[in-house]
Every structure is written in C-alpha cells, then in structure tokens.
Amino acid sequence: MEGKQKRFTFEEIFKQNELRIHYHIHRLNIRDPHHEYYQEGLVAMWNAYEKYEPDKGPLATYFNYTIRNRLIDLMRKQNREHEKDAIYLQEQSTRMKDGNYYRRHGTAYPVMQVADTPFPYEGIDSAALWKTIKDELTENQWKWVTYHVVEGLTITAIAEQEDTSREAVKSWGKGAKRKLRRITDEGM
User: Fold this and answer.
1) Boundaries of each RNA polymerase sigma-70 region domain copy (predicted)?
2) Helix segments in 5-97, DSSP class H
3) For residue 173, what are the domain limits?
4) Residue 163 DSSP label
5) Cα(131)–Cα(8) distance, integer angstroms
6) Per the confidence metrics, is the pTM higher than 0.85?
7) What string of DSSP letters covers 95-148?
8) Of 62, 25, 55, the residue nearest 41 (C-alpha)
9) Which of 22, 106, 95, 12 lies closest to 64, judged by CA?
10) Is 130 found in the same domain as 68?
C-alpha cells in the first residue's frame, strides 16, 4: 500500500474499529486500569493499518489477528516479569529473615561454626582432628577449608566474602591441600 493512495485515514479507520480493542481486552479477561492494554491494542491497530495488503485478505480480520496476538504477548511478558519479581522477593526475604547469614556489601553469606560441624567418619575424635588440622594450616588456608570444603562455598563467593581475589583463594586451597596430603600420608 506504499505506492497506492490510501482511501481512508487512520483516524477514520480508528473510529470505525476502536471497539475491536475493547472487545479483545474483554474477551481475554484483561483488567486494564492503566490502559496499558488499550494502548498496546492501539499500536497494534496502527501497525496493522500500515502493513495491510488488500490482496491478502480483509482488513478487519488482520486487525483482529494483530490486536489479539499483541495483547496476548503483552500478557505473557507481564506474567514473566511478575514471576521473576516474586521469586526474587521470596529469595531476598528468606535471606534477610534467616539469621544464619553474614551480610557484607549487600550480599548475604552463610555463617558457619566449625565447632558444630560433624565429622563424617565415626570412631575418630573429630574435635582433636579438626584442632590438629587447624594447627597445621595458616589462617587463610583454614578459611579455605572452612568455607570451601565444609560449607561448600564457591571460590568466587569466598573471594567476595574475604574481599580478595579468586587467585588468592585458589592459592590458599593449594597450600591447604598440600598440607592435608602430608598430614594424611603421615597417618595422623
């Protein structure tokens, strides 16, 4: 319709077809207090008017198809946004209400108390074993054992929590592993 003269202006077409937008909003059971869906329907009608090709079918059918699908797309988009918001709010609420987190720079990290950590091997005095291990390691190596091995935190999370680089945390781990191998090879 680019090269041809349009017989009707959009304003005339709009006056004749405005109720189509309301029809589809009602038909899809949409509550539209802020007229977002009405505006989306209006834009859809404009796009259909601009792209309409008379040899492909009636304009009314094209309006119905375009308006309905744009309203459904907007509903789906808003539903996804609401779901993401609800999940995020639930996670944040849980993190802020749960007292077992250490908060730093807006991020919550789990708090671990080594004394409460059970050792998985029965028959071994776990308190004595943990004390021996802790005595052999540096402070940072002990942090790596505590956070990475026992707590299961990632290297990145430990680096953020301790305000250091990932490479530094990896270095703590290498040193700790080396010393732990030596301890186990000696047979404790």
Assistant:
1) 14-80
2) 10-27, 36-51, 59-97
3) 101-186
4) T
5) 88
6) no
7) HHH-SSEEEETTEEEE---GGGPPPSSTTS-HHHHHHHHHHHS-HHHHHHIIII
8) 25
9) 22
10) no
Phi/psi for 174 (5° steps) reads -60, -45
User: Based on the number of CB atoms within 10 Å of its own CB, is 32 exposed (0-12), middle (13-18) or buried (19 or more)?
Assistant: middle
Q: Is 178 domain-assigned?
A: yes
Residue owning tokens 């059971």: 29
Nearest 5°: the CA angle 110, 114, 115 is 130
| C-alpha span between 70 and 51 (Å, rounded) | 15
> pLDDT tens digit string along 117-136?
444 544 455 777 778 788 88
Rounded CA-CA distance 42/76 in Å is: 18
Beta bridge partners of 103: 108
Identify the DSSP state of 5.
P
Q: Is the pLDDT of residue 80 over 90?
A: yes
Structural domain ending residue among the three candidates 95, 123, 139: 95
Give the pair of three-digit tokens for residue 84. 């993401």
